[in-house]
Amino acid sequence: MNGWLDRFFDVDMAILKESNPFENSVVRDPWDDVVDVSEINREVSNGILEAIDSVKKMGKSKLLLILGDAGIGKTHLLARIRRLSKKNNFYFSYIEPISSTEDIFSHILKNVITSLEKDNSLNTFLSTLMKKALPKISQNIPLRELIGKYGPSNLADKIIHYVFMNYGRLPRTDFLRVLFHLRHSPTMVYAIKWIMGDELNEEELKTLGVRDTLRDESIAMESLKTLALLLDKPLCLCFDQIEAIYHRFGIEGLSKFLSILMELFNWVSNLCIVIMCQRQIWIDLTNSGELDAAFITRLKESKPLFMRTLSKEESIKLVATRMKLIWKKYKLSPPYPSYPFTPEFIEEVAGEVGWIPRDLIQRFKEFIDILKKKGKIKEIRKREEIEEAEVVEVNIVDIVNEYLGNIEKELSESLSVKEAGNIADQVKNGLFDLLSLISQEKEPLDGLKIYHVERSKKISPTKTAIDALIIIIDSKGKQHKIGVDINWKAGASLSKNIERLQGWIPTNIDYGIIIRIGPIAKSIQNKLPKLKKIKILHVANIKDTAKLVTISKIFNKASSGELTDKRGGIIAVDNNDFRKTVIEYGKKDKLISKLTDLLTKLCKAKTQNKKQEETLIIDEGWLEKLLCKHPELIEKGLNVIEKQKKISASSIDILAKDPNNKYVLIELKKDTANKKALDQILEYMNQFSREYKVNIQELKGIIVCEKATSNLRREATKYPNIKIIERIQEKMKTLKL
Amino acid sequence: MSLKKNTIDEIVKRINALEEYVRKEINAIREMLLQVGNLVVLGEEKKLNELIIEHLRKFGHVSVKDLAKALRLKIRDIKPVITTLYNSGRIGIELPPSKRRSKKISVTGNCIVFLRDKKSKSLYDLFFECYQALMEGKFHPGEGVELPKLWLCVKNKMPSLSREEFKEFILGLEKDRVIELGSIVGKKISENELVIQRGGRTFYYVIKR
Question: Is the Cβ–Cβ distance between A674 and A648 less than 8 Å?
Answer without folding.
Answer: no
